[in-house]
Amino acid sequence: MQETLKIGELAKRTDCPVETIRFYEQENLLPAPARTASNYRVYGDAHVEQLIFIRHCRALDMTLDEIRRLLHIRNAPNDNCDEVNMLLDRHIRQIAERISELQSLQKQIGKLRSMCNSFRTSKDCGILQSLATTMEVYSEKPFEQ
Predict the structure, then answer these.
(1) How far is CA 123 from CA 48, 69, 120, 126, 129, in A?
(2) pTM, to two decimals
(3) What does the domain layout of the chain look like in residue ranges?
(4) pLDDT one-digit tens code per residue, 98-132
(5) Alpha carbon distances (Å) from 129 to 66, 113, 121, 122, 126
(6) Cα–Cα distance, 31 to 57 (Å, whole number)
(7) What is the spatial distance between Cα 29 and Cα 67, in angstroms, rounded to a whole number?
(8) pLDDT digits over 13-68, tens only?
(9) Is 123 exposed, middle or buried (0-12, 13-18, 19+ CB in 10 A)?
(10) How far is C-alpha 74 from the geometric centre of its chain's CA atoms?
């Protein structure tokens, strides 16, 4: 017999905030739960399992679209899983790009930090002056976002 859970119980069971559960429902990552006569959401084992799957994917920094695609593939158990491999390969490349960008950012901030190595007043601070006037310190890429 399937256990039924209210949203707060599902949140505790999966260590996921109630607001996030509602968000995943709105994003169609979680199936709509049944409702009681008093209009409370009622979740079952399938919701627990799917929410745990989603949480694991989010812990791997996957986007909602990537998770949506994985769920679609997961719901077609007899299909080939090549698309899963391609999705993960693409995700690995994106992570490598982000690591490279973060390393560049670390160098830029290190250069900026080196502009003020002694006690000064804030009006004479090389870091503050550089941030306000020039991008020369950033040899690779200027700050983007």
Answers:
(1) 56, 53, 8, 9, 8
(2) 0.76
(3) 1-79, 88-145
(4) 999 999 999 988 888 887 777 778 888 888 888 88
(5) 42, 12, 12, 9, 5
(6) 17
(7) 8
(8) 999 999 999 999 999 999 999 998 998 889 999 999 999 999 999 999 999 999 99
(9) exposed
(10) 20
Separation in Å, CA 62 to CA 50, 66, 72, 76, 109: 15, 6, 15, 20, 27
- Residue 67's Cβ-side half-sphere holds a number of Cα atoms within 13 Å equal to 20
Helix, coil or strand: residue 136: coil
Taking the CA atoms of the chain, what radius of gyration do you get in angstroms?
24
* DSSP code for 39: -
Task: State the fold for domain 1-79.
Answer: Multidrug-efflux Transporter Regulator; Chain: A; Domain 2 (1.10.1660)
* Dihedral (Cα; 145, 25, 22, 26), 10-degree rounding: 60
- The 10s digit of each residue's pLDDT in 70-82 is 999 999 989 888 9
Token digits for 68?
A: 């949506």
